[in-house]
Amino acid sequence: MAQKVDERILNKMDKTFKILFIKGFIIQIIVAIIVTGNTSTTPLTGWQVASVGIITVLLLVIAAVIYSQFPYSVLGKPKE
Amino acid sequence: MVTVAGIVALTVVLEMFLHQIFGESTTDSWIAGQLFMPSFKYSQIVFKGIGWEPFSDIGTLMGAFFSAIFLTRRFTAFRNIIPPSWVERFGDNQAIRFLGSFGGAYLMLFGARMAGGCASGHILSGDLQMSLSGLEFTVAVIASMLITAKIVYNKRG
After folding, report:
1. Which ipTM score applies to this complex?
2. I need a labelling partner for A4 at 20 to 30 A (CA). Which of A10, A18, A33, B109 fits?
3. pTM for this one?
């Protein structure tokens, strides 16, 4: 599968995901600030953690789809 | 490496100022309690005492994720890859690798919960507070780590 995908497309997908990752991380911090509010000493609830953690899960799923197109072993440096 | 150590140290100190501990393994008890045993007595204790540990875990995962994508570029996209050091010692059987990694992780987590915290809680937070129990835990962990590595990987010299 990896050989069928053009290198330029791979690089584009790589760059796109990196931008997505940064944006996702910023959104994650904003969501954490909003859902926790001024409650640094209050125990966290399930929905507070889930609303932040779901962003990581989504990023992992997207990354798995994108990087499974890349050559095996080391990204950008195919295993000899 | 120095930068990473600096960030970790700053995070731990910041969490102390914000009346939080830098812990990780409590999250596992918290998740198990939330999903499967909400009325269990121990779960209730964990629910009341939980601080930022779940966010610490998410942050650790995001840090590893960042490193795999931006720095080492070794994100494997969940492929079945067995580390070369393991292959050299135990072969490339996936079932054995699964038992080794799952069993090792289980023992580590079991020990952490028995001790009331893991390396991040006892070593990072405990040692920064000059806690005697934290220092004792650090010595025990390093000794156990060296002995286990010697037995598992059988390296000599």
Report:
1. 0.84
2. A18
3. 0.81
* Weakly modelled stretches of chain B, pLDDT under 70: 155-157
Closest CA to A16 of A54, A66, A52, A50: A66
- B66-81: string of b/e by CB count within 10 Å (b at 16+)? eebbeeeeebbbeeee
d(CA A55, CA A61): 10
Q: Where are the domains of chain B?
A: 2-153
Listed by start position, the domains of chain A span 29-70
Nearest CA in chain B to A76: B73
B19, B61, B62 ranked by CB distance to A41: nearest: B19
Residue of A67, A68, A69, A74 to mutate when probing chain B, most B C-beta within 10 A: A67
